[in-house]
Structure prediction request, 568 residues.
Amino acid sequence: MASIIKKIIRGKPYYYARECQRIDGKPKIVWQKYLGKADDIIAALTQVPAVADASSAVVTEFGAVAALYDLATRLGLVEHIDRHVPKRGRGPSVGTYLLVAILNRCVAPCSKAGIAEWFQDTALRRLIGVEARQLSSQRFWDNMDRVSSEAIAMIERDIVGQMVPAFAIDLTQVLFDGTNFFTFIDTFNTRNTLAQRGRSKEGRSALRIIGLALLVSADGHVPLLHHTYPGNQVDAPTFRSLTGALIARYRELSDGTEHVTLVFDKGNNAADNLAAVADSPYHFIGSLVPTQHKELLAIAKTRFHSLDQQGLPGVSAYRTTKVVFGVERTVLVTYNENLFVAQARTLLREIAKRQHYLREQQQQLQRRHSGKVRRGKAPSVAGVTKKVQAWLKARHMKELFQVTVEERDGLPWLTYRFDRRAWARLQKTLLGKTILFTDNDDWSDAEIVHGYRAQHHVETGFRCMKDPHHICLRPQHHWTDQKIEVHVFCCVLALMLCSLLRRELQRQGIDLSIPVLLEQLGKIREVGIVYPAKDKRRSPTLKMTLSQLSEQQQILYDALGLDRYLAA
Prediction:
């Protein structure tokens, strides 16, 4: 039986049509359709449909670009850019060009040559005073060329300075980390120093990489400071070179915030780095390399106490003090059951691979010794040893496998053994454990753990910037240092807008990831229905409306107040 029902979602009524049938003696909903709010239903019933008279329709992307444009306007993004990089001559300003590039990075990353076509199919063509023909790749390059490194620093300072009070960003915890992005810049291109070969965090060691360091708020993982650096530079010297900038940003933003804790991981540990942080206004939480503190790993689990009641199920901790980089610090050794399981499963997978490799190699050598294999070049002890060393190069593998390669009857002979005692010792001492240290001596164990766990916010930001569908930093289509810096800056501002968007919705009880938000908002389309003129003396008329919204899209539309940007 068909019926109309009302649902109260976040205090607002929404109506649905549905049909129920009895299946196996029980009532089941077999069909349901979202009808909208009461006003929508009344309007649909009272208006005379004229779709049959329409001659054509124009559909443009609306939801995501309108929401992000609204945030960019609230930040004064264009004004801040134009203040430091004033335009030369006629036409759109530098800030306007960069705004278009930033919004494109948020929702549909493409080359500068493709932006005009994308722009033409969005509501931005009426929200921003630019014609698509003005958005050629050459115009983008000309305007980007005017943005210097010094201008980037000042623009970021002013934008962040306006953002923090305007959006009430909580600065009691800020997070610092670095990553790198592979590029397709040619090996023999000498026009830049940023793209270098180094340890790619995505395993693309054959490609040149660029580094990016971010300082973000734990509140919404919103970028507060960024730095682009050569890809072959490791984390510790990067942190060292940015200490002055971190302190300066603290002084600019911490008005009224007396206690700001900087969270960073063990890759940034160095004596001079810790000394600089100790001399700065920051408090800090960091982590130590566990294998460098074996006496802490050897502490029996019976001496750990549970943090289940402090909102950390499956976590236990042992607290002590220790001299770290020349200063006595509060040290917390934690054991996490979930981390133990994840690390053990990963290691078991790697162990199984090495067992397979070694077994295959052993059987091949045995067949060679027995004469079953005679063709081809005979293996050598050096060659087999090199293979084994490559297999055991991964973490802990040399500790877990005892392998011997020797010569017998002029041919290599391989024997191996999995060291079960070493595996048991690894499980007992290392797996599942993290060693934290801090100068927040008055914090509880749970507060220290929660503070360090906030580090995942900056890692989330990096994952967003490696998402090929949204905010994606690559492919960058730039190969000079100056252009790379401007491109990275645009991507960081894109992350800022998307993070603010997610944060604004979270505060209204809507908790969705950035990719899901952009996907759902991107499906909200603006539809212009063109009606032909009734006679030759009149012009065709255009009526603007929206595409049919799902329940989730309607909630997002209402929460963001996007009706303000809908064309009349």
Remarks:
- The first strand starts at residue 2 and ends at 9.
- Residues 337-370 form the longest helix (34 residues).
